[in-house]
Amino acid sequence: MKAGKAATPVRRASIGARRNPASQAAILAAARAVLAEEGYAGFSIDAVSRRAGAGKPTIYRWWKNRADLLMEVYAAEKAGIRAVPSGDLAQDLIAHTSALWSFWCGTPSGRTFRALLAEAQSDPHALAALREKFLPERLQDVRGLFTAAAARGDIPAEEVEARLALYIGFNWFYVLTDQLEAGQASIPVAMRLIAARGGP
Questions:
Q1: Which residue ranges hold the DNA-binding region (predicted)?
Q2: Domain 76-194 top-level CATH class
Q3: Residue 39: which of 99, 126, 118, 110 has the closest Cα?
Q4: CB of 40 within 8 A of CB of 109?
Q5: Structure confidence by residue, pLDDT tens digits, 5-44
Q6: CATH 1.10.357.10-classified regions of the chain
Q7: Helix 160-176, helix 186-194: angle, nearest 10
Q8: Residues 50 and 6: beta-carbon distance below 8 Å
Q9: Are 124 and 149 in contact (CB under 8 A)?
Q10: pTM
Q11: Contact present, 67 and 119 (Cβ < 8 Å)
């Protein structure tokens, strides 16, 4: 290859509905790069396809739309943030929430989370992906914090889902109103309320 000439992406053959691991990795890497460079507004399947050297039909076979692909990019980048019970629900929630907000503020995929939530309100396919796949998978760890607390007798087992909903609502309020930085000081207070023993 001549010096100074941009490398042409290697075209990768599809293997149908079953994902080719090399193609999947290339597409996700390309999606992360496009998101970092262009932001949510400039993110497109066309740009990902060109960068990954993968055909658009392959991408659409594996991800129904750009929101679906962005949710998987988000999930892959957030995988390092784990919620592990320590025996103190309030402290566990404070630590996890602080890490989560840092991710939302400090990474390209984290910063797109608000836009993804907004898009899901007007796109039925994005809403279905958010409700049926994205949320159950992303909330598994934090639900485990509440379940562990209930098993210890710290909170009533029948309140796990309601407290989890309160937790989600608190986080999403600050995400959707773009107040994550201003709301940092409210995290410990809110988490202690959500984790309080004995219920209302």
A1: 44-63
A2: mainly alpha
A3: 110
A4: no
A5: 444 454 544 445 567 888 889 999 999 999 999 888 889 9
A6: 76-194
A7: 160
A8: no
A9: no
A10: 0.78
A11: yes
